[in-house]
Amino acid sequence: DAAPETRSFEADVSKLLHLMVHSVYSDKDVFLRELVSNAADACEKLRYEAVAKPELLGDDPRARITVTFDPDQRQLTVEDNGIGMSADEMTEALGTIARSGTKAFMDQFAAGKDREGSQLIGQFGVGFYSAFMVADKVDVTSRRAGSEEAAAWSSDGLGTYTIREAEPETAPARGTRVLLHLKEDAADYAQRFSVERKIKAQSGHVPVPIFLREKPDAEPDQIADGAALWTRSKSEISEEEYTDFYRTNAGQFDAPALTLHYRAEGTHEYNVLAFVPKTKPFDLFDPERTGRMKLYVRRVFITGEAQILPRYLRFVRGLVDSQDLPLNVSREMIQESPVLAAIQKGVTNRLLSEFDKLAQTDEERYLKIWESFGAVLKEGLYEDYARRETLLGLTRFKSTAGNDWRTLKDYAAGLKENQTAIYYAVGTDLDRLASSPQLEGFRARGVEVLLLTDQVDSFWASSGVDFEGKPFKSVTQGLSDLSLIPLPDGEQTAAETSREVASFIDFVKEALGDAVSDVRASERLTESAVCLVAPDAGMDRQLERLLANAGQ
Ligand code: ADP
Ligand code: MG
Predict the structure, then answer these.
(1) Sheet holding 175-182: strands in order across?
(2) Which family is this sequence assigned to (predicted)?
(3) pLDDT tens across 66-83, in order?
(4) Any ligand 1 atom below 6 A from CB of 93
(5) pLDDT confidence band for 441 (50 / 70 / 90)
(6) Is 0.80 topped by the overall pTM?
(7) Could you give the 3-state DSSP secondary structure of residue 406?
(8) 172 with 141: CB under 8 angstroms?
(9) Is 201 touching ligand 1 by the criterion CB < 6 Å?
(10) How confident is the model at residue 538 (pLDDT cuts 50, 70, 90)?
(11) ipTM for the complex?
(12) Residue 407 burial (CB < 10 Å; 0-12/13-18/19+)?
């Protein structure tokens, strides 16, 4: 037997563990969900590999998770007969954090409050390490499916871990055993009542059956049946069950803002279970962030990487389970498959129409979703030309018409005589934008101006969009059409004032010289003396600033 080898955790892991060990959580239960979810993932990975290599299943084809509690030893074990890990895989998986964003996690984690901290764990995929919230020592023993060898990993979470070959008799025949030596104040996790209740509540709907037993030699009882929730009929599923599933399967900690569960029939058959989260993930605008919809084929997990939804729906979590895709298709081939293309189209359309329905029936709930994810949805306005009209209908705006969110229909209903465009102003700060002198002429005429403050706004708004035949036009872009729109009685614009203005303009032009391309009396000012505008053919000023920031 080789001697154990002691290694140091990657610096980031050490820091992370330090935070896990020392932060006081109100919600320590999450570790159990993380371990069960890893065990279920491992079973699903094996199911997938076994499609091509059925011999991996040997004489034990049924996936199972076994949880063992031992009150006398104050121990809790989560064991699966899934894919398992080799010693190298263990070093990689349990000694590093193979994800970008870990630094960002720790900054938020250290700064954030308790509640936020526990919400962050799942998002950042630091699940396994959460075991150290309740254990002062963790032993992992594992055997990769199809391998003779087994390996053992052990750590107290204080900076180092050991890794060694395991005696074959002590290792699982296949899969992974995670043994927690519970801290004194976590003794509850070695009691049947507590463990059973928590697992049923948090993980009752993982697609692998879960068994529970007291001590390793006792007969286990099944406490969760592993029936995939999404294959059951909607009417039999309670809201709590959906929420549990959302938390375990999608690794979320809040409750969904919207749940969509349906079965598509016809040319292609598939089940969809999708959730819109309540809270915004930290990395929503990370360019590397991909969608979070998992792909299953006839209940076999295939990949979390398939692009099932367009990028502007990357906040949606959940899964699609296809009846038609071949199980043995490679993950790379799937992306090219026409079946996937049909699924993408179907699910995207359905989600958008679901948003629309919600906007009609429960505006308040829809606006909550809009406030979290509107800035992402708007990316679709220039990325998904075919659905632009639908997306414009879903878009909500702040405007000079008041504090409420406005739709383009609202805007269109308030068009003034001779108004031929939809006017918008782009900026970074709503209050500042609302008080900009650029808007005075519009205000004076009662012409509504949309106030756009998201990064994406400069892109889509200047990309030639129109609504009901009216083009979008920036207020900063050249002389607008205000002279055609009548002022209410008794008000004057600068252009209507005397000839003295003309000679004053000549004077200003001379004084400023090449610094400006033109000086004009303006229809748009009623109170301020001057404002800067971009030439008609020029770039919108906000876009110009954005490109300048991006180094263009
Ligand atoms: P995540 O599950 O998001 O990848 P975790 O911290 O929960 O992150 O787990 C890290 C990695 O450790 C997993 O990706 C997996 O490779 C490995 N792992 C953890 N638990 C198991 C298990 N029971 N069986 C096989 N591999 C596991
Ligand atoms: Mg995990």
Answers:
(1) 5-8, 160-165, 151-155, 135-143, 175-182, 75-80, 65-70, 210-214, 221-224
(2) Belongs to the heat shock protein 90 family.
(3) 999 999 999 999 999 999
(4) yes
(5) confident
(6) no
(7) strand
(8) yes
(9) no
(10) low
(11) 0.99
(12) middle
